[in-house]
User: Fold these one by one.
Assistant:
Number 1:
Amino acid sequence: MEMGARSAPDGYTLIIIHQGVMTVNPHLYSRPGYDPLADFAPITQLGVGPLLLAVHPDVRANTVAELVQLAKAKPGQLNFGSPGIGTPPHLAGELFKRAAGIDSVHVPYKGGGQAVSDLIAGHISYSIEGLTVQLPQVKAGRLRALAVTGPQRVASLPDVPTMAEAGLAGAEFQGWVGIAVPAATPKTIVARLYRDISGILATPEARAWFGEVGADARTDPPEVFAAAIRAEHAKWGKVIREAGITLE
């Protein structure tokens, strides 16, 4: 990110960005080395997708409401895993806790695979992870899917409700990846890059590829994407402060 911010603003250096480096890490590191809102000119999002709330089959919850009821009956006894502090699954888990008004314990791992392995083994109660990680385990019957965190259901799990449908609209979470250039890049170059990239993302091949990994190709224009980044930067700063999330 630092190298990208310092690169020549000529359109030949493109920076892959995501919510972690743009809206989360700046609140976790005292000196991240770059300003996400001032050092980059966002071009467009590339892919946007939800996460999946799943439980171990031994957890006595077949719905989100039942999981919330169980957590409220056993405050501090249920736990959820994530690939690490400040990762999207961790933040989605904190949003879920806030929206549901429950007290569950976060267990950070060194990667999503390890967290899901412990969920399958029954060492943790639930997790909110990417579909690519948890969907195969759901299909195999090793995990039970309760909800997706996006605004609509996903084709691969048509019977699984959204968080909003389950009564927790405040737990909606969308992971995203996008592309940007150094802030001083001329607007004519930004416009050209947006036109070319959005054209590629509109092709059936691109949409099919993103669909296979549980995401949607997204082509928001630069000003819309920039506004979304600013809003998420403020949102996650508030969540991180109020939840007391630190890297220690």
Number 2:
Amino acid sequence: MSKKQNAPYSDKFRREALRQCDEEGVTAIQVAKALGIGVNQIYNWRNQYKKMSKLKSGEIVQSQFHTADGVDYSKSESDEVRKLRKEVAALKEECDFLKKATAYFSNQKK
């Protein structure tokens, strides 16, 4: 059986959930219930945000959850990087083969 996948939440939704949790007298459990999500989701978002963004006196700066220091760490970007790495590896193999073939044929002429 495959696991049911929910649609990803927007960055705006995540930021709003975290902002509500930061209000005085409001707990993450209360916010989670109000938004209809699991409390662990809020904790995960908070951890992700701390890793990926810089905090400036409690305010959320421009950086989104999947972007840090101008680098996009989203899934689509990771997939493209993975594809390009495979392509580079294949081209290196081809280049090595051509070098060996060139060396082989240049030695035969002598």
Number 3:
Amino acid sequence: MLEKMERVIMLKDLYGPLLTDKQAQVLSWYYEQDLSLTEIAELMDISKQAVHDLLRRSEKTLREYENRLGWLGRFEAMRRELEGVCALLNGPCDDAIRHQAVKTLRTLLESM
């Protein structure tokens, strides 16, 4: 469940502007603020089933955007590549160069 939650949050971060306000809000409340379906239903003045349906449709929309655009896949691939570069540079080489390269790459990774 944690892996799914992280993935939905990442997809929402990438594609959130493409969602309706209602879709973005329900995803935020459920996945980021950990509100229950009942709590969200009360906030939105709709049924618990309607919240459930809205969540599922919103998740499906995010998956469809990712299938078409692939931004998260590219992000994850770039991150893996950069981690590999860090691992390579962390091996034997001039200490000053290695230190600066690792520091630069780590800063880049943290800013992503």
Number 4:
Amino acid sequence: MSQQQRAASHLLAFLPELDPHALAETLVAFANGDGGTIVLGYDERGRPSARVTPEDVEAVLREAAALTVPPVRAALENAGGDGTPQLIVRVPRSVDLHSLKDGRVFVRAAGENRPLTGDEIRNLSQSKSAGDYEAETVPGATLDDFDDEIVAEYIAKREMRTRRKIELAARDARHAAPLLKDIGALDVRGQPTVAGILLFGKNPQSFLPQSGVVFVKFPGVEPRGEGGRVGYGRREEINGPLARVVERAWQVILEEMRVGAIVKGLEREEVLEYPEFAVREALVNAVCHRDYRLRGRRIEVRKYADRLEVISPGGLAGYITLDNIIEEHFSRNPRLVQGLFQWGYIEELGLGIDRMIEDMVAAGHPAPKFNATAYSFTVILSNVRERRATQNITLMPPTTAEAGIALPPGLTVNERQARALQYVREHGRITNRDLQVLCPNVTPETLRLDLADLVDKGVLMRVGEKKGTYYILK
């Protein structure tokens, strides 16, 4: 699929017109986040809106960059493959905090540029000022500390992901040095970086002992051993390059997960205690986004009788909060994220939390819980399967607890919202289309505003983007 046939996202934007102010806003939004690509002269449907020439784009790009503080660095490319120019602007992630000249700071969220509040700007500024730790070189490390087998595996997986052949004389670290520099595993002088050692090192923990995972299983619901004594049922320390850490940690968790069964028709189907994707996503997120500057603490996976906890050292990065964690995306370690994405451990950038929630709810579990402190972030998966209510529920006046769901004191809902809550209770989720079927004589925009109002009131949680959006109980 070509660039102009894709939907706008937190990594991709379309600017049909050469508007320097819109371009400047998008440059700032991408530079403050994980970077991105701007397609010029096309809309999201791939239709050219105006004839643009390289000279026109260069002029408007200079004008737009002059509207940003400090000026955003970007590269102009021609991505057209059939002789027709398709001009795109590549914006790298920046270590600086960028704004427009009027002081507004933007980030990219849900395919749009969003202005940050004062608190969000301060949080993002603190993250930027902390430096780019994964790009720092590792004292004492050399190219000989890279595992050639791991490098070759990464190259093979990257080729499968991108469907592009990488031409190398040999698939070892020395022959792949230009590629390793390009992805930030080596610096410009060929010295291994923190990201490089974590992704490709023979023994990353000899340089970064905090980079492993500790798995602990407790028999009950408290961090104690049998009979309430001090101890645990199983403890494993998992080390190695990050790809191996993810796989070995997953295998240990899989060994300890109970397996149930459901009957579909005449066939018996085994069901894991927790959805596989939800567990792997929680684990991969911890590995990708933990703060590797924090020494003395490793990622912890704690399995209790009623829940699984994945604890990642380091609080939420940048402007991310518990309130916006589903819609917003900001990577503390973008090189690690890209590395594991190319490896295949991340299915689609920026959509993991959405699907984690979706899979847990679809399996009959409560949605995951997230706890954040200044020095840690925890994902909690419950193995309790919620019983779906199937009985008919009488709609009550808006001043009561609609559809059997307790509302916060003082809040009321209208009849359409009551129908929506009833539907969520029965089916676990609702989409705009579902509500249109329930209320066929109401305009889609009114129904959209009804659902958005329930989100604002803290009753529903919005999951997904655009056509994939649905709502669950918060």
